[in-house]
Design brief:
Number of strands: 0
Number of helices: 7
Number of domains: 1
Radius of gyration: 17 Å
Order of helices and strands: HHHHHHH
Structural class: mainly alpha
Helix content: over 70%
Largest sheet: none
Length: 138
Amino acid sequence: MSVPPKWFTPVAILALLWNLLGASAYLMDVTISPEAVAKLGDAEQTMYASRPVWFVAAYASAVWFGVAGSLGLLLRKRWAQPLFVLSLLGLIAQDVALFSRPEVRADTTVVLLQALVFVIALSLLMLARKAERETWIA
């Protein structure tokens, strides 16, 4: 295993923090109380209640495999790459469900945020592939 560049560890730490933010958002989403749901607007309540189970499973896959992949990257482990693949697949499945709703496609903020999440997830996968090629991870 070769020595990675100096920027590798800080980027891996940022990746882990980013994915932990996603995991935190997921946990807040799935543990929201009925009282808190009742305080949402009508559109948000409808969207929350109508989410298919596979959407929540895809969301969970995206964030937890992302956390594990980032931890693998930080520990310089080869298994980071397949975990980032699974995370990206979860994100794609989540986005398919999300963007099948016209009201979501019309929300520029949601579209831009999901685009940013996708770019970061893809970048982390590309970084893991490069790290394996350069033997920074093993």
